[in-house]
Amino acid sequence: MHSFLRFSRFYHLLVVTVQFSHSTIGSVIPVLIYGWPHSGTTITTKIIQSYDNVCGMKGAELKAVTSVQFRNAERRGCTHVVVKWPWDMTDEIIASKTYENYLKIVLVRNPYWIFSSINRRLMMSQKQKLNYTFAIWERSALHFKEKSVAKQTNSWETIIYLQYEHLFTQIDESLLQISNKFGLHMSEHKVRMLKAGNVHDSRSTHKKLSKKRGLNRSEFHHLRYSQIEAKLQNMNQVQKLWLSPSQISEISESKIVQELGYSLPRELLDCYSVHKHDVHCTFGTCMCGFVE
Q1: Is the distance from CB of 30 to CB of 80 less than 8 angstroms?
Q2: Which of 102, 155, 203, 238 is the most buried (most CB within 10 A)?
Q3: In contact, 10 and 86? CB cutoff 8 Å
Q4: Residue 74: HSE in the Cβ half-sphere, 13 Å Cα cutoff
Q5: What local confidence, expressed as pLDDT, does residue 73 receive?
Q6: Using CA atoms, how far apart are residues 292 and 289, in angstroms rounded to an integer?
C-alpha cells in the first residue's frame, strides 16, 4: 500500500504549535511539523529549512528525529533539525513525552482545497474515504480553534497559530513570527531565494509525479523533495478544485469552516446549485471543479 496511506487516519491541520522545553537533545533542537495530509507540511518544511543552521530531512516523513540524524546535524553545525509527519492534533500528542523537547509546528488549511487535493491524488476507495472524512477534519479544526483562543499560562510554552494561507498573504509577518518564537535568523538572500524557489528547476519532476497515482516509496519522497525545491506558492488555486456535491455540502454547512474564514469558492457555486439534490450524483461520477 502506498506509504502515504499509512497516515491516512491523521487529521488535516496545520496550525503552528511551538512548544519549548528547558532541555534539548544534545545541542540540536528538534522541530516537528505535523498536520493533516495536504495541509501544507511540505511547504512549511521548506520555510523552516530556509532559516540559518537548520537541517532538514529532504522531504522524508518521519515520526521523530533519530539519534543518527541528531549526530549528523550536530556535525554539520546545525542548531535545529526538522522532520514532518502528518498527525492528529490532540492534547495527548502535544503533551507527549516523546515530543516534550521538540518545537512543534501545526497548520490549518482551507478544507475545500484539502479535499480537492486528496480526491485528485488518491481517487479513493471506499475504505480510504473512511480515513479522510470531513468529520475527522472538522473535529481537528474545532480543537485548533479552541487552542488558538486559549490563554497560555506556562512561561516555558509558546504557541503560534498560523493558517496555511497566511504563509503567502502575510509571508513577511509569518517569517518574523517564526524567527522570534524559534530564535532563528534568515538572511535577506535566503528570503529572496525562498520566495523565488531554488535555481534547480524541479517543475518537470513535480508535474510528472503529482499526476501519477499509486506512487511507490521512492517516487513519493522524490515528489516531496521536488515540492521543497520548488518556488514558494499558494496551492489554493481555482484549477485545483475538484469536489463532489456531497463534500461541498458538508464543508459549506460547517460552522467551524465559517469561523476560520473559509467560504464556498464562487467557481463551485453553479455546479453545486445544479447537483446538490441529485441522488444519482455520486463521488467520481459527478464532480464540481476542474480537470487538470
Answers
A1: yes
A2: 102
A3: yes
A4: 14
A5: 92
A6: 10
pTM for the model:
0.79
Residue 195 amino acid letter: K
CA dihedral 132, 133, 134, 138 (to 10 degrees): -80
Mean of pLDDT values over 216-243: 72
Burial class (CB in 10 A: 0-12, 13-18, 19+), 190: middle
Burial of 73 (0-12, 13-18, 19+ CB in 10 A): buried
Maximum CA extent, the chain: 61
8 Å CB contact between 214 and 124: no
The Cβ of residue 95 has, within 10 Å, a number of other Cβ atoms equal to 10
| Cell matching residue 3 | 506509504
- Percent of the chain at pLDDT > 70 equals 68
Residue type, 54: V
Per-residue pLDDT, averaged over 42-68, amounts to 83
Q: Please, where are the H alpha helices in the chain?
A: 41-49, 67-75, 91-94, 111-122, 126-131, 134-149, 166-169, 171-182, 188-196, 203-210, 217-229, 245-252, 255-259, 266-275
In a 13 Å sphere around the CA of 161, the CA atoms on its Cβ side amount to: 15
Q: In angstroms, rounded to a whole number, what is the distance separating the alpha carbons of residues 193 and 51? A: 11
State the span(s) of the chain assigned CATH 3.40.50: 3-199
Choose among 32, 12, 224, 31: nearest CA to 115. 12
Name the DSSP letter for residue 151: P
Domain covering 3-199, topology: Rossmann fold (3.40.50)
Phi–psi pair at 135, nearest 5 degrees: -60, -35
Amino acid at 242: W
CA dist., res. 106 & res. 52, Å (int): 21
Reported as a pLDDT band with limits 50, 70 and 90, residue 123 is low
